[in-house]
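Listing S7. Sequence submitted for prediction.
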Amino acid sequence: MLILPIVNKNRVMNVHIKIKSAEKIRTGICFSDAKESEIIVNREKFSNSIFSNSKEISAPVEFVRSKSLLYPRNYLITTKEAASSTLYDVYQVSQPPRKVNDSLDKLYSCALTDMRKEIPGHNKGRYISLQKLGIGEHLTDEKIAKLQRIVKEHDASEWPTLFKQENIADLKETLDFINTFECTVVSDTTIPEASLQDVLKSLQVINTKDYRNLQNYYSMAKSNRDIYSKMSFINKIIYDEPLSLIQSSKQRQKQLVKVKEESEYKNVA
């Protein structure tokens, strides 16, 4: 489980981030022609490719794209085998979005790797830092200022051309890419920021490993907040509304019900 720690409204939340289209289609199975922790694209296997020997974080998504050039279809991911078993689960995932930059590809690959490392029946969280992936490096104040100026001074029909001319098209493309993820707050894991600060203050003197890990966690949560805030601001400039990527389980459920009701209404109409 990929966990995005993030500070929001004086709280520190833990957000489960995953690829929106990823769907677990089989549980407790073992294919005769596929191993555990595998990616299968058009019958091509990640473990048999040159990408499996790469040390690059983005190797998994590069493999998927390379094997999808002629036939862009859904692909499969197998998890690790369950404890004391040779059986694993299987995910089906739709095609990845077009590449925007290496940083976003790393994030997407982290989500693929998280599925590959999943052990059925065991819940293990892995923290993700948007800063370490380099996502914030592309969201500079200069580029955002250019975006504001274009949106304010020009008609929307002119934006795509002007975005390209000013080399800021990647700002909107980043939003499109990031919206392929689903981010849900993990229930009962949110703590007041002040409480975390008090704990850190009391542990600072002894400077133990626990203190350093907790300090790194808090720093990660703050940097994730800063980068997410920039993406939300960009979304506000372009679409006149903040980014609503992160939602609680209740918000997510209400959204699913609304989508279902709208679909049923259209079918009746």
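Caption to Listing S7: primary sequence and predicted structure tokens for the chain studied. Residues 150 and 162 are 7 Å apart (CA to CA). The chain has a mean pLDDT of 93.
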